[in-house]
Amino acid sequence: MRDQRSSLPSSLCDFAPWEPLLRLLRPGGAEAHTRRPVRVAGRIGRDGWSLPVRGRASPALRGAVDQLRRVFARAGVDEIAFAAEMGPTGKTTLRLIEHGPAVESASGSRDLGVLVLVEGALPEPWRRLPDPRPDARTAPSADLELLERTLRERWPDAVGATEEQLATAEARLGVALPEELKVLYRAAPARREGSTDPSGLDACELFALEGLYVVDGAARHPRWEYAMTQTVVTRPDAAVQGLAGSPGWIVFGDNGGGDRLAVDLTPGPRGHTGQVILIDHEQVIGAALVADSLTDLALGRRREEHPDRSTDRLPVLAAVRSGGLPTPGAAAHPALEVLSIGACDGARFSLAPLIELPRLRALSARPGTLADPLEIGALTGLEFLELGPQDWRVLLDAGAVPHTLSAAAITAHGDDDPLPVVALANELLALRDRPRIRHAVLEGDLGPAA
């Protein structure tokens, strides 16, 4: 009996709308006349698509994609992944997959993606709070009188914020504004024209007081596909803590290129309370020091320091593979957070050396690299796990899927039938009562290749 919970709507189970696209994706020339079936895979969504084509897409291809998008829209579906096997006579088997809200689609068109087992779950680095710095002080350059005088000279006719407005902003943010920031908003006009001066505050698009906000790590969360290998490290000599966000990062402006300027109330070991930092919109962790104080920024005295991402390696993140670390034991360290195990000339490894590591939260193991997948049960802090189908099968059959997982991934060979992997994924999703992946298999005939 067909599982209706994993079946696509009947309106999508029509081969005809797919024919134009599949004909365009079918190879031509000598390759089209081989006796072997041709396999192609891709993904088409409302906001983009991934197809096995080289160079710029032709108008015909774009038209075929748009036709399918209209079909999806009528069915209320945002995205469909597909895998087609086209025989030499044109007989075609088309497998359609709708990931649904519990799956983050992977960047590769053949990969299933990441199963989000807990709705809204964030990897630990994006939940990390700043380390307390009770000894942190404002910079010696912070001078409230000099800052106010400088700003009054720059904006002599400005009507700035009142004390009541500042108090309202503090209540909304849930944090006391630093004195320099209060001086800035008492002196700055509510609205001002941009400036071509490349230094200091004149290079900043200052937000209205109502636009101040605290940087939330969740807002910088990338896809789990990338997040699982990211780590948070703060060097002992860093001015800025290597965080995704902090309740002490108060954004007050923009540099005109989408990067945010903030005052930092939770500085790093060598930083100052109230220093000015830049939060790069293309980065998901960390911030760069811009100036030791708002006074320095107003006077054009910048002291830029960019985070050193080279610290995000051993012992926090490690890889066992040919040419890398030889065994999981070589990676075992109390600070280890993320471990990947790749192909090592057919070797199979025990996970015993990793037991009781206090910070290990993410493990990725290529198919065939684990001596005993059930040893995963002894890794009590895992929030992300990536395994091959056979290893997942062992865990599912034993009822040993870690209850601590927030997300999971299944590594499968790209040319394999994707539906067994989908069935396995739905078993994992069912453990947490998450929405299932829906799918369908269509049969059609494209006719002989030209």
Describe what you observe in this structure.
This protein is an alpha+beta fold and 450 residues long. The chain contains ten helices and 18 strands. The protein has helices spanning 19-25, 59-75, 144-154, 163-173, 179-187, 224-227, 294-298, 328-331, 389-397, 418-431; strands spanning 38-45, 49-50, 79-86, 91-98, 103-104, 114-116, 205-206, 213-214, 249-254, 260-264, 275-279, 288-291, 317-320, 338-341, 362-365, 384-387, 407-410, 438-445. A seven-stranded mixed sheet has the order 5-6-17-16-15-14-13. Strands 7, 8, 9, 10, 11 and 12 form a six-stranded antiparallel sheet that branches. Strand 13 (317-320), helix 8 (328-331) and strand 14 (338-341) form a beta-alpha-beta unit. The relative contact order is 0.15. The model is unreliable at 1-5 and 193-199 (pLDDT under 50).
Features:
single chain; 450 residues; alpha+beta; seven-stranded mixed sheet; six-stranded antiparallel sheet; 10 helices; 18 strands; globular
Rg calculated over all Cα atoms = 27 Å
SS summary, helix count: 10
Report the structural category: alpha+beta
Anisotropy-based shape: globular
Kindly report how far apart the N and C termini lie: 39 Å
Helix content: 10-25%
> What's the helix-strand series?
HEEHEEEEHHHEEHEEEEHEHEEEHEHE
Low-pLDDT runs: 1-5, 193-199
Strand order of the largest sheet: 5-6-17-16-15-14-13
Largest sheet: 7 strands, mixed
The tally of beta strands, per DSSP, is: 18
- Average predicted local confidence, pLDDT: 89
| Strand residues, percent | 15-25%
Blueprint (SSEs and pairs):
Elements: H1 19-25, E1 38-45, E2 49-50, H2 59-75, E3 79-86, E4 91-98, E5 103-104, E6 114-116, H3 144-154, H4 163-173, H5 179-187, E7 205-206, E8 213-214, H6 224-227, E9 249-254, E10 260-264, E11 275-279, E12 288-291, H7 294-298, E13 317-320, H8 328-331, E14 338-341, E15 362-365, E16 384-387, H9 389-397, E17 407-410, H10 418-431, E18 438-445
Parallel strand pairs: 13-14, 14-15, 15-16, 16-17
Antiparallel strand pairs: 1-2, 1-3, 3-4, 4-18, 5-6, 6-17, 7-9, 8-9, 9-10, 10-11, 11-12
Helix pairs in contact: 3-5, 9-10
